[in-house]
Amino acid sequence: MQASASTPSNRLSTALIETLAVFLIWVFFYRFNLFVFAYFEYNPRVYWLFLPAGIRMLAVFIFGWRGVAGLFVGSIYTNEAETDAYVVGLAAISALSPMLALYACRWVFNISSTLKGLRARQLLYFTLTGALANSLFSQLYFYFMSTVESLHGLTPMFVGDVFGTLLVFYIIAKTLQLMTYTIKQTNPPINY
């Protein structure tokens, strides 16, 4: 008798692998962004171009709550704040903001849970909603935790999240386009 492909242990293994993958990708892109785009730093937590924002959106799009878990752990790992409670709050905002944006966009634009029929305009709205949620909640958190005196970082964080997300989506779209072109060139259709 064969074991079912969808046993609880298989589902748990898949969940852990997906969560770990999101964690590793988040850490890589976070460190990459710090290294390559240091010039775009507005302050230590705000960048005018922030590629990990695109990773947030993709993680939630593809993995749902498993993506949130990977983002949460990754945000804790990459955060260099002074206190544990501060780090956990910041990580929660970073991980939950894209999920909030996804649910809001599904509700407003009547997008199916499988994302079937997703259009570029809806993806742009999701990007803008996610960037707004993350930047607004982050800046409010910074303000109420007394790490900033005003919400001046709201605009640069919003812009950085939008540009970072759009750049990640663009790179993925172009990569898929190139892969499709390459496959068509190496496997031409057979004419009978």
Keywords:
192 residues, two-stranded antiparallel sheet, 2 strands
Task: Tell me what you see in this structure.
The chain has 192 residues and is mainly α. It is built from six helices and two strands; from the N terminus they run αββααααα.
Summarize this structure briefly.
The chain is an all-alpha fold.
Describe the protein's topology.
Elements: H1 8-36, E1 41-43, E2 46-47, H2 52-63, H3 65-78, H4 84-109, H5 120-144, H6 154-186
Antiparallel strand pairs: 1-2
Tell me the radius of gyration. Answer: 19 Å
Number of helices: 6
Summed over residues and divided by their number, the pLDDT gives a mean of 86
Q: How many domains comprise the coordinates?
A: 1
Total DSSP E strands: 2
What is the first-to-last residue Cα distance?
Answer: 44 Å
What share of residues is helical? over 70%
Widest β-sheet, arrangement of strands? 1-2
Report low-confidence residues grouped into runs of 5 or more: none
Order of helices and strands: HEEHHHHH
Main beta sheet strand tally, sense and closure: 2 strands, antiparallel
Q: In what range is the share of β-strand residues?
A: under 5%
Query: Per the principal axes of the C-alpha atoms, what is the gross shape?
Result: globular
